Amino acid sequence: MQFDKAVLQIFANYCVAAAESMAYTLVRTAHSTFVKETEDFSCAITTPDGHTFASPKTLGATWYVGLDYGPVIGMIDHYEPGDIGMTNDAYSGFVATHTPDIVLWKPVFYEGEIVCFVGGHIHNTDMGGAVPASLSRTLTEIEQEGIRFPPTKIVRRGVLNEELLRIMATNVRVPDQNVGDLHAQLASLHTGERRVLEIIERFGIDGFKAGMQALLDYSEEQARTVMRGIPDGEYFFAEYADEDSVRGKPMRVALTLRIRDGSVEFDYTGSDPQLQSSLNIPTGGRERHALALVGFVYVLYTLNPEILLNSGMLRVARCVLPEGTVVNAQRPAAVGMRSLTCKLLHLLTFGAFSQAIPERLAACPAGGLSILSVKTMDRHGSTVMASIGPIGGGAGGMSFDDGEDGSGANNAFLRNTPVEINEAEVPIRITRYGVAPGSGGAGQFRGGQGLVMEFKVFSPNTLVTARNRDRTHFASWGVCGGHAGANARFTKNPDTPQAEQLGNTDLVICNPGDVIRLIGAGAGGYGRPIDRDVQRVSEDVQRGYVTAQEAREVYAVAIVDGEIDTAETAVLREQAHAMARDTPVPAFEFGPYREAFEAKWTRERYAALTHILAGVPVQWRYFIKHRIFDALDARVETQGAGVEVIEQIFIELCASWPELRRAS
Questions:
Q1: How far apart are CA 488 and CA 470, in angstroms?
Q2: What confidence tier does 378 reach under pLDDT thresholds 50, 70, 90?
Q3: Which residues, other chains included, contact 42 with Cβ-Cβ below 8 Å and sequence gap of 6+?
Q4: How many CB atoms lie within 10 A of CB 421?
Q5: Which of 490, 447, 446 is nearest to 467 (CA)?
Q6: Are 235 and 257 in contact, with CB atoms under 8 Å apart?
């Protein structure tokens, strides 16, 4: 059956509506705040071999539009009507990518034949393990991250496997919540199956089968058209997390983007070795793994908001994911906080594409979005555990407007939880929640402001988890002369003599009366601040986003007694432009911390480090990286030395450890 573009769009709308119905069922029946409010879940309709061809556009996570369910579908050898598969094991098929994400899939039969699958995942607030919420960078192996289920049938011919459910409930901290969310997932799949059968009745089975493939093909065609509008070439970029472990070294991810005639290669060679922490991503080295290409999906959608969101768009891409690195970790590496590294890959992708088309992409979004959870007791002594909301920052400044404040940008699918809901479900008091003035990077179009949340706890031994803590040191970069955004801050008992700066700590024990304040990072600015519209600068001063002194020193605008001094502003602007006339506008401004770091750790030295680490066994790499970092820090004069200093350090390490010499 052939589809013209009009009929294909109608078919696509039906399929997206079916996926939306699945998502709506899930939101309306879920038990945990993290699903029904934050919406960390996905829903999908896939081909019989597992390629996603429809997903919601308005509900749930946007990371999974290209997810390939094929590997886990194939791990169950036979399906009957009413069966439902389940897994949350990151190393079984590399579809569920950390333990809290339970993935379900159900075959849809029509006249005895499997015509598609409906599936999806939810992020469970807790899956047991060493820490509440199951996630912390302190964890070093996946066995610490909670109970795992390899691909298995949770439902057989319509009958729920109660034994599996009891095993899960025995191993988690708030079992009623997990069981309730699982039943919501099952209801979502039943809704999806019903909607698919309605589509088949409307279009016919042959039309449905042809339509699935046509949607994938059309998305691929749209993606190639977008890519052909980007100059061919090779573009390199690097991004950093503040720490690769507890009190660790910076973690680097690197990308060489190769664009040629409508196709693109993402080469992640140069990324750090897999870590002794939970920031690793389990991709299995699959060349189109969804988590390695989320940033690419966002770029395509930015450049063509009409593109069909399905796995067809990823056919134009392939990834190089070196084995034993943070982007392709090997068992038993912990992977619970892979979301922090995934978000870095988004920023990494934006930075690489920005070099090719700076006028079409925004500056760096805030990054470092922290997901706060609280484990405490209610007045009856019962355990209460809930997510109380993601705290992040805004979107990067654009070539035509400011970045949105507190929007989350590439993480905006994680909705904020209303204060009233948090206080109704968790015995805390939220004393402050809003934007963090002055955090957005300066520019002709400034970066979006970060968010701030402050709350008080009332029970002893309350545990606050703040996973994905980052951007305390490295900042979100500005482009085309725009400034970097402000760093994130995390404080216990702020504005008191007992104030404690928590940095990137993600597990904080609190006692009655303790206060936690988290300020998200600001986004980068776009364009030179001295080119910003004077009236906009005045409005920023009135809002408290910029002080009058900053308006003068950064934007060359004189604000006197709350009003623009037009004459003095003209003089300031003329002086500023004269000084800037002979100064090249930088493509990126990274902020002082990264600039100082990269003065020591140059691209050439990282290349030498990558070469050395690739030649030793995986289990040695993290150890060697840290020893080389320590040795380089101990050398007083390194600025003038080249890559040979890295090679010399490795030779010295081999002399100290004969086992390393034999291994390499």
A1: 7
A2: confident
A3: 55, 60, 61, 63, 64, 67, 120, 121
A4: 16
A5: 490
A6: yes
Are the C-beta atoms of 585 and 483 separated by less than 8 Å? no
Both tokens assigned to 186: 């099952």
Which tokens in the block code for residue 557?
A: 């605008």
Sign of CA dihedral 431, 435, 436, 438: negative
Q: In what order do the strands lie in the sheet with 507-510?
A: 383-391, 370-377, 462-467, 507-510
| pLDDT tier at 664, thresholds 50, 70, 90 | low
pLDDT at 380: 86
Distance, in Å, from the CA atom of 48 to the CA atom of 579, rounded to the nearest integer, reads 63
Taking all residues of the chain, what is their mean pLDDT, rounded to a whole number?
94
Which among 110, 118, 32 has a CA at the least distance from the CA of 388? 32
CA–CA gap between residue 468 and residue 136 (Å, rounded): 8
Residue 390: per-residue pLDDT: 87
Asked if the model's pLDDT at residue 638 lies above 60, the reply is no
Could you give the CA distance from residue 30 to residue 435 in angstroms, rounded to a whole number? 29
Kindly state the average pLDDT of the residues 633-641. 66
Put simply, whether the predicted model's pTM sits higher than 0.90 gets the answer: yes
- Using 50, 70 and 90 to split pLDDT, how confident is the model at 101? very high
**Is 637 exposed, middle or buried (CB count within 10 Å of its CB: 0-12, 13-18, 19+)?**
exposed
**Strand residues in 232-273 grouped as ranges (E):** 233-241, 251-260, 263-267
Q: How confident is the model at residue 53 (pLDDT cuts 50, 70, 90)?
A: very high
Distances (CA, A) of 205 to 198, 370, 519, 613: 11, 45, 53, 53
Residue 250 has pLDDT above 80, yes or no: yes
What percent helix, strand, coil does the chain show, rounded to 5? Answer: 35, 20, 40
Report percent pLDDT > 70 for the chain: 98
At residue 129, what are phi and psi to the nearest 5 degrees?
90, -165
Q: CB within 8 A of 346, min separation 6: which ones?
A: 294, 295, 298, 365, 410
3-state secondary structure 454-487: EEEECCCCEEEEEECCCCCCCCCCEECCCCCCCC
- With 70 as the cut, is the pLDDT of residue 242 above it? yes
Distance, CA of 570 to chain centre: 43
Tens digits of residue pLDDT in 499-532: 999 999 989 999 999 999 999 999 999 999 999 9
Q: Which long-range contacts (CB under 8 A, 24 or more apart) does 652-656 make?
A: 653/624, 653/627, 653/628
Say whether pLDDT at 415 is over 90. Answer: no
SS3 232: coil
pLDDT at 411 over 90: no
Q: How many whole angstroms separate alpha carbon 86 and alpha carbon 69?
A: 11
Give the angle 246-247-248 at the CA atoms, nearest 5°: 90
| Residue 368 Rama label (left phi>0; alpha psi -120 to 50; beta) | left
Burial class (CB in 10 A: 0-12, 13-18, 19+), 32: buried
DSSP string of 131-189, one letter each residue? STTS--TT--BGGGG-----SEEEEETTEE-HHHHHHHHHHSSSHHHHHHHHHHHHHHH
Cα-based angle 569, 572, 575 (whole degrees, multiple of 5): 150
Q: How many CB atoms lie within 10 A of CB 159?
A: 10
Collapsing DSSP to helix, strand or coil, 224 comes out as helix
Residue of 630 and 1 predicted with greater confidence = 630
Residues 317/293, Cβ–Cβ less than 8 Å: yes
Mapped to the 3 state alphabet, what secondary structure does 38-106 carry?
Answer: CCCEEEEEECCCCEEEECCCCCCCCCCCCCECHHHHCCCCCCCCCCEEEECCCCCCCCCCCCCEEEEEE
> Which ranges of 337-492 does DSSP label H, i.e. alpha helix?
338-356, 419-425
